[in-house]
Amino acid sequence: MKNYNVKQLFSQYKMLALGIAVAVIWAFFYTKTEGGFVSPRNLSNLLRQMSVTGILACGMVLVIIAGEIDLSVGSLLGLLGGVAAVLDVGQHLPLALNLALVLACGLLVGLFNGYLTAYRGIPSFIVGLGGMLTYRGVLLGVTGGITVAPVSNGLVQLGQAYLPASAGVLLGWALFALAAVLAWRRRAGRALHGLAQAPLWRDAASVLLTGVLLLAFIRTLNGYEGIPLPVLLLLALLGGFTYMTTQTVFGRRIYAVGSNMEATRLSGIDVRAVKLWIFGIMGLMCALAGLINTGRLAAGSPSAGTFSELDAIAACFIGGTSMRGGAGTVYGALIGALVMASLDNGMSMLDVDTYWQMIVKGSILTIAVWVDVSTRTARR
């Protein structure tokens, strides 16, 4: 009975548990690196490193919630990043046109994957596995197996630019005001419909905690160069995807498809169209991540994106997305991406052997899935 209650507690406060896990990881590396891990410069690098996995996780969480999987995202990231480098270095295309073409290619490839899965009945695992091999082969052909460099300064800025300190402070105030407005609207909405309210002090404390975290976030990053542009993009995606999954019909349909696809189909929802567009969004996220990665490296590499699909999937599972579909959040997946990036960064600072890094990350993924299975059992 005691074990059952512990599982229920973890199920209800999963995000709190993830926050504690991040705090423990950071505290461990803080002591082992004598404070170097939490220096403004390293945290800036960590968040920029996390942004690529986070962008992929934004799309992957939708795919998994819908009950599917996509193993091709790492290879597609590398391919689209390589295409951007080739168009930039070889064809000297204007940046805006280059970005538009790469994003369009990502959307089309994603829709093609979705078409094969939703309309042709090919399991998404097989479509993703075939894409993993195919896109990696195309990448090697496009780049000739060599690094394409140097890319133009405009493309480099996508992965390496920073928001000025003053603009970062204004952004922090704007986000704090937004959090306060959303909390007030939530209370007003519940009052309008006669629903039970949480104590006022709890909402006030939540808004205050948000402000404290924003202050620490802005001050830390302004202590180095400012907020990295990829992190700004990730914050924008977090807001956009969270709104889509919680406030739109399409978002609710994604959860419905993953929870019970047959019942959703019988209710009149076009399940195949939902899955088609989920994969299209995933392809678009691969294009964004590929562009950011190419800008961060200032080159198109034939090995770019290797194992990125595993990091994205692991981030989703660690963040509470159920492997059975029908449950998960975008912000949870991003916290999972932060866990993965923190482990990578910290173990690299400590010069941990590569094989140990792989063992640790693989073990954490296994534990995350075990926790999902256990908490599902507890809820029954």
Written overview of the protein:
The chain is an all-alpha fold and 380 residues long. It has two domains: 295 residues, ABC transporter involved in vitamin B12 uptake, BtuC (Orthogonal Bundle), CATH 1.10.3470; 61 residues. The protein has 16 helices and two strands. It has a two-stranded antiparallel sheet.
Essential attributes:
16 helices; ABC transporter involved in vitamin B12 uptake, BtuC; mainly alpha; two-stranded antiparallel sheet; 2 domains
List the helices and strands and how they pair.
Layout: H1 2-12, H2 14-32, H3 40-65, H4 73-89, H5 95-118, H6 124-143, H7 153-160, E1 162-163, H8 165-192, H9 200-222, E2 227-228, H10 229-247, H11 249-259, H12 261-266, H13 271-297, H14 308-318, H15 330-349, H16 354-379
Antiparallel strand pairs: 1-2
Helix pairs in contact: 1-16, 2-15, 3-10, 3-13, 3-14, 3-15, 4-5, 4-6, 4-13, 5-6, 5-13, 7-13, 8-9, 10-11, 11-13, 14-15, 14-16
Percent strand equals: under 5%
Number of strands: 2
What class do helices, strands and sheet pairing give? mainly alpha
Give a short account of the largest sheet: 2 strands, antiparallel
Radius of gyration from CA coordinates: 21 Å
How many angstroms does the end-to-end distance come to? 14 Å
Quaternary structure annotation:
single chain
Query: Which overall shape is indicated by the principal axes computed on the Cα atoms?
Result: globular
Which CATH top level class of the largest domain fits?
Answer: Mainly Alpha
**Percent in helix:** over 70%
> Which H/E pattern describes the elements?
HHHHHHHEHHEHHHHHHH
CATH topology of the largest domain: ABC transporter involved in vitamin B12 uptake, BtuC
Q: Numbering strands along the chain, what is their spatial order in the largest sheet?
A: 1-2
Q: Write down the overall mean pLDDT.
A: 87
Uncertain residue segments: 1-9
List the total number of helices: 16
Examine the secondary-structure arrangement and name the CATH architecture of the largest domain.
Orthogonal Bundle
GO molecular function: transmembrane transporter activity
Pfam families: BPD_transp_2
Transmembrane segments: 12-30, 50-69, 76-93, 99-118, 125-149, 161-184, 204-221, 227-245, 274-292, 355-373
Membrane topology: Multi-pass membrane protein
